[in-house]
What does this fold into?
Amino acid sequence: MCLFVLIILASSLIIAPVKVQAVSSYTTASCTLGDVNGDGFIDSSDENLVVDIVMGITTPTLAADLDGDGIVSPADVAQMNANASQGINNPLIISPVSCDLPTAAVTYSKDGGLTYNSSITVSGGDTLNIKATFSKALSATEFVYLSVDNSLVDNKAMVAISPTEFSYDLTVPTGNINATVSIIKYFGSFDDNIILTSGSTFDIIDSVVFSSFVPGACTLGDVNGDGLLDGQDTSLVMDIMAGIATPTLAADLDGDGIVSPADVAKIKSNIAQGAASPLITNPVSCDLPTAAITYSKDAGVSYNSSTTVKNGDTLNIKATFSKALAANEFVYLYVDNGLVNDKAMVKISPTEFSYDLAVPTGNINPATVSIRKVFGSFNNAIVLTNGSIFIIKNSAPPPVSSGGGSYLNYCENIVYSDWSSCANDQQTRTVISALPISCVFTTAQQADLQRTCANGQGQGQGTLGEGQGQGQVLGEKIVDPRELQLTQIFDDAHYIWPGDMDLLLGYMNVNRDLALEQSMNSKYGSILGSNVKMALVGLESSNAAAVTNFLAYGTKTTLKLGAGERAGVLNSYKAAFGQLPKTEENWRDAIKIANGRWPSQVSAAAEKLANVNFKIVYKRNANMANANDNAAVTTMAYGLRPLPRNLDSEKTAIKSFKGIFGYYPVKATAWDVVRAIAYSGAKR
It folds into this structure.
């Protein structure tokens, strides 16, 4: 009733139009208190608009809120009348009051507020502080709300730091987003968009595509080799620093030979630059150089890619690299058969290094050369494009008289057949080929045609009754395939260790492939160690050869895995036992792992970690009396390889791993968890 009377009273008054003073500063675009329609006059039309706002007919404006309480009400109608009755003495006419909204400048900080900028690029996981600084102070009853598009912030209250400053902390999500900021000021019944004078956008960049990318090549910054510069690369650099991932040259962004916090900062900086990053626009290759080996036995007058030398010669071995090496890069030489055990080569020029070898006695065919490049904490095997072998040939041993005036020529290069099945706890084999032609076996070579069965396999043969004089004959026996497999595993280990190339090649019935061996050293050097002789503590040349042979040629029970998976087996063995196999017994366990069998050795540390991972995956403790739980823990601990593989199960297991741990498997122990999920049968 009061409102109705007030409106009737106000409508009955005639307010003569009185022009707002300070004409020179008046613009129709500005907001002046009382001039509700913005025509430069305060008159009855403005009063009528105030009444319409009170009645809900017209949208409220700040010019109609004469008492400044944030609500257009009958009180504002009454004040409009009271001021208007004073005519030219109306205070709003004499001293016009601006009701223009303030503007705001938005700035950003990702270092905890130490520095602010009007533009910024952030990545997933960063904490971004967004600060709005207003052009004039806000009252205690005015509130500021923030929105950021792409559903990043949906109209959230900002925290008042002062009457002119408000802030908001945003946990940055992953993705590539150009984000737009908007701000609303709430005051009573008014909600007004604030004009931003700066900082209305910021960028989230988590993934940048290299302008050129070659799969398998080394590109600086692309630590995981997927053609993107992103958070996964940052995580891997941090893992390398923590010692849980193998250092790679792609992670050494500052090129000092060490993966350090400086490299983390540099990779983040390049991600933040997006497509403008120098690493993106001009990708930098970190591929290792190759080297050609040549030999001289005439003091460097002439060089050849192959040579035959004898005792007393001085053999100059020269490595010529495909690109110049820096002053802090060093080259080390290794020649098998104990000839050169990882010795520094002398620098002749940035691309040439040499070593003088005093040739020993004996016949070695071939002597195999390998080199490594040392740079800071990096030790990398170098692929040799030629000249990886030479021959040492001294006079043959004096022939041995057979007693009748003729002389015996003993065999040197022998290729044997596979071992026979066990009979009477013995296995035999035959000679496929031997050189020289018509050679004679030594006593030792003859003895090597027979051996005791591995692990006592082959027992249980039958016998005839006593007194029949027939001796023992092989009786019938039903053989467990797993027992046959174990016998084969023992054979595999015997031929792999101690790295006798000819022995293994004859066993596998293949020819030697030097390029393949070099490729194995280069491709899987990060798993095997960081120099050309596998650089694992305590490894001798024979063991280095065993590792290379295993990768290049495999064994009869592991050939089906392929070189990459065999490298993975060695990685799992190393993760469990802290080293690569160093004895024939070690190799048996490695090959057991490759065939999904429990190793004989036990690693308490590996099993402890496996039990922790089991609890994370299955949300309970493992019951080792349960076959499935036991299989899961053992697979996680030692990396048992399933045979046959089920790729669909593995794909599902990878997704489960990502859902549980928040990242995709990279390290050996992570893949071991994936295999346990896929094949063990354990359940939550």
Remarks:
- The first strand starts at residue 18 and ends at 19.
